[in-house]
Amino acid sequence: MPDHVPASEDADTRSVPGGREGGRPASRAERWRRRLTESRWPMVAMFWASFAETIIVPIPIEVVLIPFMIARRHQIWWIATVVTVGCLLASMVGYGIGYFFFASAGQWLIDALGAAQDFQRFQEMFADHGFLAILAIGVVPIPFQVAMLAAGAAKYPIVLFVIAATIARGIRYFGLALLVLLVGDRALALWRHHSRTAALIALMAVVLLVIGVNLVAGG
What we know:
Elements: H1 7-13, H2 24-38, H3 42-55, H4 62-71, H5 76-113, H6 116-129, H7 131-136, H8 144-153, H9 158-183, H10 187-218
């Protein structure tokens, strides 16, 4: 399987959801993709790309991850595992920032992301729903950085946070891997047009599973 991404996939990576064709966000994503595919250690590079995207990089990792998965379908589940682990480690770092340094570094990160309103919205969600609020971050248009900072600042149990983050991010990355296996080169275009719908369906399935487990345990 060749390591390069075909020209038809390059065309997809030149537009970023919410961005502009040929603009700065797209060119940055294209540079990411090239560095990953040309790296001597592409899996290590993808791990750090996932870590960076989770902490602060304002580019959806899907625009480089999906073409990378298409080019390396024989490693697709390993890729999904690597990016999930990178995201989870970054999430724990973000949780720690919220827990120990929210008034300084945490507030700076929220300001740098321009996410003050998102943080307030998520705090209200988190106060009411806790675990499910972290799961829902994959559906609602709120950066995941907000969830990890809010969970840390609220001193939410880290074990529950890690479990919720693992489910939420696992749905994201392993769902993308499944999408690539099912539709191949059309995966990026489908993600751009239907990502919210797919995430909502996945979240509803998880919520029903959680409710079912609670009912069985309570019975």
